[in-house]
Amino acid sequence: MDLSQATARVEELRSIIEEHNFNYYVKDNPTISDQEYDQLIRELIALETEFPELLTPDSPTQRVGGTPLEGFVKVQHAIPMLSLANAFNAEDLRDFDRRVRQGIGTDAPVHYVCELKIDGLAVSLQYENGRFVRGATRGDGTTGEDITQNLRTIRSLPLLLKKPYTVEVRGEAFMPRRAFAKLNEIRAERGEALFANPRNAAAGSLRQLDPKIADERSLDIFLYSMVSEEVLPVAAHSDALRLMEELGFKVNPERREFTGIEGVIAFIEGWTDKRNELSYDIDGMVVKVDSFAYQDELGTTAKSPRWAIAYKFPAEEAVTVLRDIELTVGRTGAVTPTALLDAVSLAGTTVKRASLHNEDIIREKGIMIGDHVVVKKAGDIIPEVVAVKAELRTGDEKPFAMPTHCPACGSELVRLDEEVALRCINPKCPAQIKEGIIHFVSRNAMNIEGIGERVVSQLYEHQLIHSVADLYYLKRAELLALERMGEKSVDNMLAAIEKSRENSLERLIFGLGIRFVGEKAAKLLAQHFGTMDAIRSASEEEIVSIHEIGTKIAESIHKYFEKPEVDELLGRLKEAGLNMEYKGLRPQDVDQNSRFSGKTVVLTGAMEQLSRKEAQALIEARGGKVSGSVSKKTDLVVAGEDAGSKLAKAEELGIEVIDEDTFISWINE
What angle do CA 83, 552, 512 make, to 5 degrees? Predict the structure, then answer.
């Protein structure tokens, strides 16, 4: 067989194999036997071995990579993967419908699509000219991790689409219940720890550095949305789902379209009891406005689209025995009671601990050690004790009283400002120090990978760290001397510490754990003052003058920076080379007199002279805001080459459109 004959046969085999994959994994309707399928694969492998120049990444023989990764690369999502707002009852859904109709200015019933909410791991898939090129986790919605190799092992995920579209699709990777049961059986036989539920198993499988492990886990995937710059023949979400099926994607068939919210509510109520009949886990339903035009008009908040909502199924409850109450000291000194329970199965997980929140809750509910208690998962995530089965008491139960002194350091506990929580106010309390360091290294703070709760405890117990500043003075030799610290893990840890020195100021402010200061307040402080020195010297009045920062937060910030130990800490961090400046765009840097000031701009099509990110930064530096969709609120559209549906919609709405050359000339004015 010569090269041209081999090329033709390889293309034919790939087409046949992918069609059989689609029938088997997507349609659940195999058309050939396993032996016949294996024979086709063997023939393709033989040809690719004989003619290596014919081997391509999208070949069905290349689903499982051969070399484990050293780590996961970060991926920036071009369009954020937003989370959904939640509904918990029919009234919440009716309120959502009212807001939608109000937002689009109609009294007529709105057309909705209702889908099952798969309990798995949200992922994004990129296709170029029909070929799967990259897959990533949702991460924090803006930045995820490249897990392409592991996603390729999912047989229902097409490596090659039926049409050569360049498109991003999003969906949920999950582990079917049968595969989960089999995995835990194998782990039990090996004496390994069992996974708590299919969701955790799926997430753990997709974050394996060796794709062979992911391949063994029998994962599956449902896709539920498309993001594309191309002109797609769809005007509604329901059309997009049908197009995705035509392209070869696995789309969940248990979906319905409704005009008006009452049909949606009835459909959801029917699924509340039926969900356990499925072969995979769901934790609710998703309701979306069908029309893309309406979606664009409704837009999004900072966190969620206004045109979609997730209905969460009622929390499952179980009865078990409360054996003891454990006390933990958080980074702010709050002492929190936690119930230690007889193991009980709840919403697909084994629960042994549950929150009791505070002493007042224990007293109000009359909880005693030895009680039979009702436990539920709040939002199907956090277990909590909701009630006592007093009728089951035997007389052996014992009352519980909160201690007067800190369980970690022995200092006297106090209540501050009439708070419910008891607090340890000893700044040298070891529990607070460790919790503070764990917060400092966390993903949303300094994001130091490789240092988690176990490592922090180990470093603290070996007296290598006493504060967050000590992290930047750790030595390779002393880390290698610790148990379970190999050369690679130590090098990765030190590299992550080194990288964190360059973080923008808001991450450091949040990482310091100032009371009441979350991520948003940290960014507002960094944007307003620009440097750590400016924040430290700011008066309480200057801080409270920042929009969205109230007196409570301002007082906490001012008091924090008055402490002499904070001066010492910041001095050591500065000496260690940490960046103390905000790296983003500050309000005073914005050109308020430019053509873009106060305008909402949409970028569409391919730009030759600038990247999309560069163009966005230039617009924002001139007081403009960049949006991902065209609506009546759009002021300007910048159209590059091959601009698609956004350009057509802008022209339809009469919105001003300029090309790239005009855009650059306006920028340079």
Answer: 65
Same CATH fold assignment for domains 430-500 and 505-575? yes
Tell me, yes or no, if 212 is annotated catalytic.
no
The span from the CA of 52 to the CA of 56, in Å, is: 9
CATH code of the domain occupying 86-312:
3.30.470.30
Model confidence over 126-154: pLDDT tens digits? Answer: 998 899 999 999 988 888 889 999 999 99
The helix or strand, by DSSP H or E, that contains position 7, with its residue range, turns out to be helix 3-21
**Which residue matches tokens 């049968």?**
178
C-alpha distance from residue 75 to each of 67, 119, 148, 243, 519 (Å): 21, 23, 11, 27, 21
Looking at residue 189, its pLDDT comes to 78
pLDDT digits (tens, 9 = 90+) for 548-559: 898 999 999 999
User: Is 329 in contact with 432 (CB distance < 8 Å)?
Assistant: yes
DSSP secondary structure, 291-337, as one string? BHHHHHHH-B-SSSBTTEEEEEPPPPEEEEEEEEEEEEE-TT-EEEE
What is the average pLDDT across 314-338? 91
| Average pLDDT rounded to a whole number, residues 227-253 | 87
| Domain extent listing, the chain | 3-62, 86-312, 317-401, 430-500, 505-575, 590-667
**Measured distance CA(38)–CA(29) in Å, rounded:** 17
For 230-267, b/e burial (b = at least 16 CB within 10 A) is eebebebbbbbbebbbebbbbbbeebebbeebeebbeb
Per DSSP bridges, beta strands 656-659 and 86-87 are: unpaired
> What tokens does 319 get?
């009865």
Give the CATH H-level superfamily of domain 3-62: Helix hairpin bin (1.10.287.610)
Residue 624 · residue 596 · CB < 8 Å: yes
Phi-psi region of 341 (alpha: psi -120 to 50; beta: other; left: phi over 0): beta
Thinking of the domain 317-401, which architecture would CATH place it in?
Answer: Beta Barrel (2.40)
The CA distance from 650 to 111, in Å, is 23
Whole-number Å distance between alpha carbons of 308 and 103: 13
The third-level CATH classification (topology) of the domain covering 430-500 is DNA polymerase; domain 1 (1.10.150)
Give the orientation angle of helix 430-441 with respect to helix 453-461, to 10 degrees. Answer: 130
DSSP label at residue 160: B
Sign of the dihedral defined by the CA atoms of residues 589, 595, 596, 599, in that order:
positive
**Into which CATH architecture does domain 590-667 fall?**
3-Layer(aba) Sandwich (3.40)
Total length of the chain:
669
Which candidate in 74, 117, 398, 428 is catalytic? 117
> Which position has the higher pLDDT, 234 or 230?
234
Report which of 307, 172, 312 is spatially closest to residue 251, judged by C-alpha positions. Answer: 172
CATH 1.10.150.20 assigned to domain 505-575? The reply is yes
List C-alpha distances in Å: 512 to 169, 543, 629.
Answer: 38, 17, 37
Which pLDDT value is given to residue 348?
A: 63
How does pLDDT run across 45-91, given as a tens digit for each residue?
Answer: 888 888 888 888 778 887 765 555 566 788 888 888 988 999 989 99
Do the bridges between strand 600-604 and strand 625-627 make them parallel or antiparallel, or are there none, so unpaired? parallel
pLDDT of residue 262: 96
